[in-house]
Amino acid sequence: MKTNIGALSKSPLFQGISEKELAALVKCAGCRFRKYKKNELIYAAGEYAREIGLVVSGTVITFKDDAWGNSEAIEEIGDGGMFAESYVCGGMGVLPVSVVAAKDVEVMFFDFQRVITTCSSACVFHTMLIRNMVSLFARRNMTLAGKVEHVTKRTTKEKLLSYLSEQAKLYQSNVFEIPYDRQGLADYLSVERSALSAEMSKLKAEGAINYRKNHFELLVGQKSKAQGDEL
Q1: Where does 153-230 sit in CATH, by number?
Q2: Which fold has domain 5-143?
Q3: 40-60 confidence digits (pLDDT tens)
Q4: Which of 31, 86, 93, 228 has the least CB density, counted as fewest CB within 10 Å?
């Protein structure tokens, strides 16, 4: 399969690495590429993951099933994002989650140990790659900490307001788009979709928020109607 170096270079993992260096790195690290169709399983829970996956193009979703077969979406990962890295790098290997293609996707797989080991050619970009990976791990931990803060709120309303407030701060604007559809947001916040939709309708009627699909606006000027101190 022909390597799409241009698409790879946009990933935060390869920040500071030129396309020429990246082409050499892909060869040096023995990276492999594979395409998956929408809804095709990439990794199954319980499977031993020996390689980290990086989304070259498309979107994947990680999810977990309980003993009764109910699925909970954990994370949506788009272009340039990685999956299975915590389990591979942490030496755990066995995945507690499954990874599926949310739409047609191309994935690059690479061996973490091979990447962090200085090769015989002493490629100078290995150090930059390791630095970027550590930075991405730190950001991922911050993201997960944010999710914990949202889902531990007591009510659906509090969870929603906590999440929307974080997004507004992230975009530095009261107008923004979120990466989830309604079901995806319900799964992310660990609430029922019907309960989430009901709270969103109430907040809109109260003049606290406005929205259309995944486009949101926080109407902070009228926040007192909806206990807006949480906004």
Answers
A1: 1.10.10.10
A2: Jelly Rolls (2.60.120)
A3: 999 999 898 889 999 999 999
A4: 93
